Amino acid sequence: SHCYEVNEDILLRPLTMKDAQQSYDVVCKNRSHLKPSLPWVEHVNCLEDEVKWLKSSMQDIQNGTSLQMGIFETKTSKLIGMCGFVNISDRNGWIGYWLGSDFTGKGLMTQCCRKVMEIGFQKLKLKKLIIHAKPENRKSQAVAERLGFVCNGELQNVLYFGVESEMMVYECT
Questions:
Q1: CB 138 within 8 A of CB 147
Q2: Beta bridge partner(s), residue 70
Q3: What pLDDT does 3 receive?
Q4: Are the beta carbons of 72 and 65 closer than 8 angstroms?
Q5: CATH code where residue 128 lies
Q6: Which of 2, 7, 84, 110 reaches 20 to 30 Å from 104, CA-CA?
Q7: Residue 70, C-beta contacts closer than 8 angstroms, at least 6 positions apart
Q8: Phi/psi zone of residue 105: left (φ > 0), alpha (ψ -120 to 50 degrees), beta?
Q9: Cα–Cα distance, 85 to 58 (Å, whole number)
Q10: Going along 79-162, which residue ranges are E strands?
């Protein structure tokens, strides 16, 4: 099963139905912090929405088409963000991540992504990892750059929940 230690305080694992309320609460608490860079936030407006997303996410993990994982504090089991593969196809993996505003600026996301890269290359045998970042999202770009991803210099129109956004594309092989 997928459960990975990032450091002695943090672990990554897929969410289960038991995490629905906690996951919904974290999104609500961080709504204004997340909304500028994550268009899907507007589509999570009740626990039901979160449950629906969780069900499809769990199905995708079973099908091997994604591996989205919660970032949990080991001691408290508190969910503080998400990090993992939002899409897996043709041996490419698209990494997506977000962190609650109380936990940013500590280098935590870089560590989580490093673990996800290791899972992608070693366990899932992926050939290429990709990170999309909005041009104005310097924090996300900085994470990609710290991890050794290279920006291919093109803006790509990416469709999320029917909303098209221009994204910078970072790649790592």
A1: no
A2: 13, 82
A3: 95
A4: no
A5: 3.40.630.30
A6: 2
A7: 12, 13, 14, 15, 19, 23, 79, 81, 82
A8: left
A9: 13
A10: 79-89, 92-99, 128-133, 150-160
Question: How many other C-beta atoms are found inside a 10 Å radius of the C-beta of residue 77?
Answer: 11
Domain of residue 107 covers 4-172
Q: The tokens of 112 are what? A: 């989580």
* The pLDDT of residue 159: 76
Q: How far apart are CA 65 and CA 57, in angstroms?
A: 9
Please give the structure tokens belonging to residue 74.
């080991």
Q: Which of 142, 124, 117, 129 is nearest to 172 (CA)?
A: 129
Query: Which mean pLDDT values do the consecutive 10-residue runs of the chain (173 residues) have?
Result: 93 95 88 76 82 92 95 95 95 93 90 98 97 90 96 84 84 96
Q: Give the total number of structural domains in the chain.
A: 1
Kind of pairing, strands 163-172 and 4-7? unpaired
